[in-house]
Amino acid sequence: MMLRLIFAVATAVEGEIVLLDEWIGVGDQQFRKKARQRLDEIVVRAGILVLASHDVELIKSTCNRAILLEEGRIVAAGATDEILGQYLGGAKA
Hints:
4 helices; alpha+beta
């Protein structure tokens, strides 16, 4: 119940820039589905989404550009598939 309240408060105000550290991955299946729909709506209305994640499929489905960081420093920036390929050690993303 606390998670639902925190999520509701955190998503009550929408902005032009949305910063997300990972995506909602906790809670029961029904909550995750509603949370995903709500976050998708916020992302569509925002001008910019900055998403920090290691979830390759989420990044592929959500982002059109990516930045690869190592020890807090930018080592690569560009098209999502290109950067994911570098992240995965040269494997095709």
